[in-house]
Amino acid sequence: MDAQNVEGKWLTDLNADLSGSDRSCAVLAGAVLDDRLCQVLAAYLLPSDRKGEDRLLGRGGAVETFAARIELARRLNLLSPPMTKLLGWVREIRNDAAHNVDFSFESDSIRNKVENIVSTLALREKSPHFLTTPYIGAKGHFVASTVLLVGFLQIEAAETRRTSHQPMSVIENFTIAARVWPNE
Predict the structure, then answer these.
(1) In angstroms, rounded to a whole number, what is the distance separating the alpha carbons of residues 155 and 32?
(2) 182 preceded by cis ω (within 30°)?
(3) CB atoms within 10 A of CB 115
(4) Which residue among 70, 99, 168, 172 sits deepest, i.e. has the most Cβ atoms within 10 Å of its Cβ?
């Protein structure tokens, strides 16, 4: 996917959800951002040594959840503090939607989280056109914010370079081992 081009079936589906279910909109937005964050991590980390199976980022992997991926990316310094907060709020909204049959963007707690997202992105000040029709109200603002966050993560994934750290070779460094474990 082209990092400069934010489009695809997910965008069509997300825009369709503007007039549909609040729950499906929140869950889809969270899933798309989770996927894009996984792409950022995959761009930085060494690839899996098992063809077709990623025991770290894949299904059932050690870093399978959105929360774990956010935390790992933060600790690897792949996310800024504001982006960490933004993804955390989206994750909370997504989780609320997934576990609450009466989920609504009009509930006070969800509206407050969406407002936190809009404020952190400074959309009213820097890009108020993102908050106009069809992106009005808390649900519309959430969708507009999600589209921007997807774009940011796609650019981040395209610009992230694989780790270049070279671990010390134990076999080649017996002199270091001798210093750590001196003869008696």
Answers:
(1) 15
(2) no
(3) 14
(4) 70
d(CA 96, CA 23): 9
By C-alpha distance, which of 120, 124, 25, 36 is closest to 80? 120
Q: Could you give the percent of the chain with pLDDT greater than 70? A: 80
Residue scoring higher pLDDT (122 or 60): 122
Domains assigned to the chain: 9-180 (1.20.120)
Amino acid in position 126: K
pTM over 0.70: yes
Residue 51 sits at the vertex; the CA angle it makes with 46 and 55, to the nearest 5 degrees, is: 60
Q: Would you tell me how many other CB atoms lie within 10 Å of the CB of residue 24?
A: 15
